[in-house]
Design goal:
The protein is an alpha/beta fold. Helix content is 42%, strand content 15%. The chain has 16 helices and 13 strands. Helix 7 crosses helix 11.
């Protein structure tokens, strides 16, 4: 098949596309896959790093901050330019199917594909769908979802419950705990807390962890902290020079498979793909939903899991007060860790990418 995958803006829209591409290539190396994203956004780096070709559109999202409202004047012109470029791409590639993984970057390609009678599959990661996928739902042939009861938002006859796809390299069990710890310069004999602030980083979480260096040291706990590039540049490296604690700070973790294999527990934003990846890795987790996402969808992602004792929740406004005590408590409570792993593993669908590929093939 000739396949176009469109979406981006955040890791939550990019990684599902890469996972679907990996599953397609695993099914047949003959499939031809092209990604389409937004010029200048993170997908333009992450997709080529995963081994796939990508074309950028001049599309931009609507600015919601008052100070940036004037920049929205050019949005309609960018949309029109992106639609025209999407049409040219479709005519050049003649795809058998177009897959939209969400975010404003997916709109021009999916809309134009539908108008040109190309089969369309949407992949919605969240319990509460994004505005773009809600707008595009009427043009889609199939909509692959990760949560139940999505018929509140999408036509029932289009919904396929597949779960969220996880990148292929995270599904492999090649790395041992010891080798993974060695990769990051950590000891396999002491607990490791993996802190993930999402693809954009999280300043409040990073500050809270850095302020508690001495507490982690006193409790014999190691930390592997991913800050996001913007926050990494602001960190004072002298904080760690005289501290005996194994404390690793990185702007971005490329080998997430090794990071998850090394971790005893994980602290993460509650993006749908982060939840799926942590679940596949079978790690107990504390989730901190971001308050900055549209419609508070990260909170909607995690509440069903908290109700099922599959995850722990610390609200963003409670981070400074509750995060460190919650981490220390979970590190020392192996019974609670076992309960969280058992319940989260039951919730996650490890074969989601294969199920999405099956849906695509049946449609085509």
């Amino acid at each position: 098949m000739r396949v176009i995958i469109s979406g981006g803006g955040t890791g939550g829209h990019i990684y599902p596309g890469i996972a679907i591409a990996d599953a397609l290539k695993k099914q047949s190396a003959e499939h031809e896959i092209l990604f389409v994203g937004a010029q200048g956004k993170m997908e333009m780096d992450y997709v080529p790093a995963a081994g796939y070709r990508i074309i950028g559109l001049p599309i931009r999202g609507i600015r919601r901050r008052f100070k940036e409202m004037l920049k929205n004047i050019v949005v309609p012109f960018r949309v029109l330019a992106s639609l025209w470029k999407a049409r040219s791409i479709i005519k050049a590639v003649s795809p058998d199917v177009v897959i939209g993984t969400g975010g404003y970057a997916s709109f021009p390609m999916v809309y134009m594909a539908a108008s040109m009678h190309i089969p369309v599959v949407l992949q919605e990661q969240n319990a509460y769908p994004g505005i773009v996928n809600k707008l595009l739902a009427k043009y889609a042939n199939k909509i692959c979802v990760a949560y139940e009861h999505m018929d509140k938002y999408f036509p029932t006859n289009k919904i396929v419950l597949t779960g969220n796809p996880v990148r292929e390299f995270l599904m492999k069990e090649e790395a041992s705990h010891e080798a993974s710890c060695q990769f990051f310069g950590l000891s396999p004999d002491a607990p490791i807390v993996l802190i993930l602030g999402g693809s954009q980083g999280a300043g409040m979480i990073t500050k809270c962890i850095l302020d508690a260096i001495h507490l982690f040291a006193e409790n014999g706990i190691q930390v592997l902290l991913s800050t996001g590039k913007a926050y990494f540049e602001k960190i004072d490296s002298h904080l760690f020079k005289e501290n005996p604690l194994h404390f690793r700070v990185l702007p971005y973790i490329e080998r997430m498979d090794l990071a998850l294999a090394a971790a005893s527990i994980v602290v993460s934003r509650a993006g749908a793909i982060a939840i799926a990846e942590i679940g596949v890795a079978q790690k107990p987790a504390i989730f901190i939903p971001s308050p900055h996402v549209a419609a508070d969808h990260q909170m909607k992602n995690i509440l069903p899991l908290v109700d099922k004792e599959a995850a722990m929740l610390v609200k963003d406004q409670e981070v400074s007060e509750k995060l460190i005590p919650t981490i220390l408590s979970l590190v020392n409570d192996t019974k609670r860790q076992e309960t969280l792993i058992k319940n989260l593993t039951q919730y996650v669908k490890p074969n989601a990418a294969a199920a999405i590929v099956n849906t695509i093939e049946n449609l085509v």
